[in-house]
Amino acid sequence: MRRRLTVLIAMFSVVTMVVLLSVRGCSNDGDGSSGSVSSAGAARSGATVDPTDGSAADDGSSDESFSDKSGSGRVRSQSASRSMFKAAMPAPAQPERDLTAQASAALAGVFSGARYSVSVVDLSNAGTLVDIDSSQVFASASTYKLFVAHSMVTAVELGEMTWDSPLNGMTLQQCLTTMIVDSDNECPKAWLMRDNGAGYDKVTQQANALGAKNTTLHYLDVRTTSADLALILTKLYRGEIWNDDDRDMVIGLMKRQQYRSGIPAGIGGNGTVADKVGFRDSYLHDAGIVYSGKGDYAFVIMTSGSSWTAIANASAALYQLL
User: Fold this and answer.
1) DSSP 164-191
2) Has residue 241 got a pLDDT over 50?
3) 30: Cα separation from own chain's centroid
4) All domains of the chain, ordered by start, with CATH?
5) How far is CA 290 from CA 269, 300, 305, in A?
6) Which parts of the sequence are annotated with region: Disordered (predicted)?
7) Distance set, CA 236 to CA 17, 97, 246 (Å)
8) Which of 18, 85, 209, 293 has the lowest CB atom count within 10 Å?
9) Residues 6 or more apart from 259 whose CB is under 8 A from it?
10) Is the entire prediction scored with pTM above 0.85?
């Protein structure tokens, strides 16, 4: 009797354990805790999410393997981390634009049969946008007067002269004005012929010191390049060579200069142009600062065997590329 009772107790214990295990298994299948366990397991295993690339940790699971209760919290955490990382990243530097290839294609028909050179500089950063044979040397015609203007202003700022100093029967201020506005030739000649013609070498040295290495002034032979003219325009605009009052005064004279058939005609109502032209024999040049809604630029177009209409068309085409 005692042995039979012992067997029954043992059987009852086994059945009870089976029932308890079955009930616990059903509970685990129904409350979503398996996902939580996976999440906790991933955390215990050291698995993390890299906020820089938005990918899941290398734990063999994706966001979809997590339940709404545990997984969506993790997804929101990843999104927030990525947003914080992006906010902390500095804006990438804008690369300098190079429009030379497009400009060459656009101008090929404009200057058909002519020799030409073009420089366009973004004055916000002094970056060259267009460089078409910019080191090609041309007879400067009257564009050399920009370098003479630099020499005159420098002499005043150094105290060597005043704007009331006499030159060619007028004041230095009057000479500078008529040289830029009317493209007068006598005042710059008088400036260069000072000290028995030493002015030619002095202005050449001053131009070279600016970085205009291909600019030379000799009696009846004055040469420069579109790159050198763009350089002095850039330094003028950016206030790198004179004080602000003298810079504004010279730019104001350039805005008033009377020969407007080149770059100003091409820009038209899109902006204001402060420029200096040059024309002699077959040479037609225009070098100017363009103030526009697209920004401010130095435009220099030097030609041999072309026309003012072509220069105007070229400046319009260049402006459209900006």
Assistant:
1) TSEETTEEHHHHHHHHHHS--SHHHHHH
2) yes
3) 62
4) 47-90 (no CATH), 100-321 (3.40.710.10)
5) 11, 10, 24
6) 29-97
7) 95, 22, 10
8) 293
9) 183, 277, 279
10) no
